[in-house]
Amino acid sequence: MTRFLLLFISFIFFSLAQAQTQKGTITGTIVDEKNTGRDGSTVSLLNSKDSSILKMVAADKSGKYIFENISHGSYLVSATGIGSKKGYSSNFEMNEKATNVELKAILLTEQAKTIAGVTVAAKRPLIEQKIDRTVVNVDAAITNAGSTALEVLEKSPGITVDKDGNISLKGKQGVMVLVDGRPTQLGASDLANMLRSMHASQLDQIEIMTNPPSKYDAAGNAGIINIKTKKNRQLGYNGTLTLGYGQGKYPKFNEGLNFNYSNGKINLFTNLSHNYRKNFNTLTIQRNFLDKNTKEIKSHFDQTANMINESQSFNGKVGLDYLASKKTTVGVVLSGFENPRAFTNRNSTFITSGINENQTRAFAEYEQLWKNFSTNLNFRQLLDTTGKELTADADYIMYDSRNDQTLSNFYFDASGNATEKSDTLLGALPQNIKIYSGKIDYTHPLKKGARFEAGIKSSIVKTDNNAKYDSVNYGIIVPDYNRSNHFIYEENINAAYINLSGPLSKKWNGQLGLRLENTHAKGDQVTTGEKFDRPYTQLFPTAFLQYLHNEKNQFVVNYGRRLRRPNYQSLNPFIEFIDRYTYQQGNPQLRPQFSHNLELRHTYKNFLTTTLNYTNTTDIIQQVIEQNEERNETFVKQANIAKQRQYGISINTSNPITKWWTNNMFVNVFHNEFSGIVNGTFVRVDATTLTLNGSQQFKLSKTFTGELSGFYRTAAVEGVIKAKSMGQVSAGFSKQIMKNNGTLRLNFRDLFYTQKFSGVSKYSNIDAAFQEKSDSRVVNLGFTYRFTKGKMNGAPKKKNGGSASDEQNRVGGSGN
User: Fold this and answer.
1) Coil, strand or helix: which one is 201?
2) Which single residue of 313, 647, 763, 800 could bond 181 by disulfide (Cβ 3.0 to 4.6 Å)?
3) Which domains does the chain carry?
């Protein structure tokens, strides 16, 4: 692998050095009346004889565009932008003497009229394959109108969302989810709630990066999903109001308001939302405690836990962008949320040991409050008209949580008679996290469409967790010092990166990046006096090579090294009890896991994509089950259990079957293999898994659409657990009303109630089976109303991305 990388890197640099002599490109810039580059303009290459469209691209954030692999002939270029008149270049020739053409800037002038809505001048394809990412254009799917952001994600290639809102990419967990380049700030369930409150009308694109460029944090073992929202260019104001109600066994509802105002110099934006959800989970576990030597069953546990989870989420964001000059933009964003949650668990455990049988009944009650406040300051400076750009971000993020627990246990014999006195455990588990982060990025365009990027970043994280437990004995509260623990963790990460990309020839494009990250982690268990100090420095190379065989076929090979750092909560050694015999515990000895990812991708006619992938991961972070046979206790914790290898093949197709029927399907077959030492025993677990997810979209009339979607997964390996097959089918309808300013949506999720988890874990002296079902079958009714007043213009460009992406994604949320 090392020799391959050195050879590949040498080839890329040599090819880029030779790129200056290669030919066959058309470059240019799209500008507005202030001579500022027009971001997102649609640029078309036309045949000068009949003005037929030959190719279409989107201008980048500085207004630049490039057409590659162009044959000899006579052409012209047209450009369109929202709220602007179409602009044209003059006719030009491509021949042996002129094969590298740089056109004069094309001016887009304003259409000075008030509009009631936005019309996109050119329709983009649903799926675009780029050299380092897959792009989903949200507006290209008819039935995305009225959908939520989570529903759009579920229909995107390679992405699966389970019942708890955990997002996986091509069968691998550890995905970093960003919104406009900024972290989502939430744990799985809270993230799902936020995405349910975001509607497709707010979204522009979804970027799926299994091997992100070096500009992004190296964190995210499976890759990065970046949800890009639409940028407001409208003078005046516009907004979206959403209301939704869902009914499963219990109700769920949400309300949201998105509002933007711009006067050309100042751009003000705000988002407010509220979610309420009540769910149930029923978990059954069968456990055999085995003799370590003979492997005979010493005792059998049959456990049923009935859990009710009631939570709310209040979210708010307000931001301001100020156009100080034609080249300078400064901005500030303030955001925060408050998530109160009540959780109860009624647990019954039947214990059989020989001829004896007894029962333990437990009642657990949790009161939780999770709060956040974030501040982002950002700056953007265009250095000249060629596209040289300097951007900077500074972030401060604060999380504060409270988790109060009450666990009561009652003991009975087989006949229901009390056998011993009951006991009660009280727990107070507060957590405080503070994140300070800053970054600077520089972009330098080179000749013939090449680009050089570089940047630095620094972050400091401080967490304080002081878990206190008390026992109640005959009505008297006694401190439980054996279970209490005070843990303080500090981490400093300093990073720098470079990235070079551009055309290598008529048919070849390349991108090469290198990221350096230095990490210094310190932990202090104040209660026991144990400390650790772990400094380490790592390099993370990325490389992409694209071959454009012809207009129908293109190939991409890419490589990237990535890591997954443990969540801050996973490092905290506090104990959280389910009942007397079952609990979960943090692990301050966790180390980061590292992976090498290699992919080969082929795209045919921009609608059929086939990908071969291989991933090798060391020190994988995974939940493991351990037991104490003497006390009949089972506990779950995160550990660096093993190494993992995954190889697979995926096929994605997106195409219209008829004028009214559109097909989107994704098929992925992969083999996961875990091997390593778990609880002192060598364990090897592997499985080959097939996943299917997709949607069939039906345009029933101009304003009425329908959709049938779902997913299916065969048996899979999740660490040391072998999960059985599962899936679900959903259906929905969407109706445009109120002169297309409103959308009414009705959908039925998990129609046949098949989204249920079950699995087994058997290794060493562990012998357990699990079954879980939840409130997944839900009917939802939603309404969206869009309002606007003003005219389109080039408002200040909103800065994308804060500086604390990885740090916030490692916050475990409220644990829902």
Assistant:
1) helix
2) 800
3) 2-107 (2.60.40.10), 127-809 (2.40.170.20)
